[in-house]
Design goal:
The chain has about 160 residues and is of the alpha+beta class. It contains four helices and eight strands; from the N terminus they run ββββαβαβαβαβ. A hairpin with a 5-residue loop joins strand 3 and strand 4.
């Protein structure tokens, strides 16, 4: 997909039991920085008064860098909400949305020592494609990371 021709879609209602995803913002992308259009969602816990429990990002324009290093999805769950599978459940809610954007498969990356994230990818049906070194000019490399696990999820 060409980032310049990108059109944001309405994600609709995204609910899974006590988890609700709320679209917080859309980001048009910045081609000079290599950033693609994306959606930022808040994970909200209905059981605790609709409090924000974490975030999930869906990066929408397919690039080699995303498939190798950044991934189409990024997520973070606040410490007190961990163990509820909010990351897995959030991505699962968004997989049909990714299909609406034309994806047949998506990639999620994580650090090799991030076992909770690796298990999340596996529970989502992700296949480990390998562990790749980050290039020295990559933002994650500059932040101290060196390798990424690459998981591919085939969309039905």
């Amino acid at each position: 997909m060409d980032a310049r021709a990108f059109r944001f879609l309405d994600p609709g209602e995204l609910l899974d039991d006590d988890l609700r995803l709320v679209l917080a913002r859309t980001n048009p992308g910045q081609p000079r920085k290599g950033w693609v259009p994306s959606y930022d969602f808040e994970m909200r816990c209905a059981a605790e008064g609709d409090v924000v429990a974490g975030t999930v990002i869906f990066r929408t324009t397919d690039t080699e860098s995303l498939r190798l290093y950044g991934g189409h999805f990024g997520y973070g769950v606040d410490q007190r909400f961990r163990g509820r599978r909010y990351a897995e459940r959030s991505v699962r809610l968004l997989l049909p949305f990714a299909a609406r954007h034309g994806y047949r498969s998506v990639v999620i990356t994580c650090n090799p020592d991030n076992w909770p994230s690796r298990r999340t990818c596996e529970r989502l049906g992700g296949e480990l494609l390998g562990i790749v070194p980050l290039p020295p000019d990559n933002d994650m490399f500059l932040a101290g990371e060196r390798f990424k696990c690459r998981y591919e999820i085939i969309l039905a």
